[in-house]
User: What shape does this take?
Amino acid sequence: MCLATVYKEPDNTVICKNVSRIDVDGEYVTIRDIMGDETRVQGRILMVDLANSVVKLQCD
Assistant: This one.
């Protein structure tokens, strides 16, 4: 299983670790970790690096 870490740009702070699912609904991104905890942020996906398990979001 490949779990990701989601970072907020431009300051590169960690939003969530061990992310197993990301859903996009309009201008909102819902991030779910392996424990089932969800974080919902307003923003958009800038980059997904599957080889290094990194996701970067531009948050509004």
Observations:
- The mean pLDDT is 94.
- Residues 4-59 form one domain.
- The longest strand covers residues 13-25.
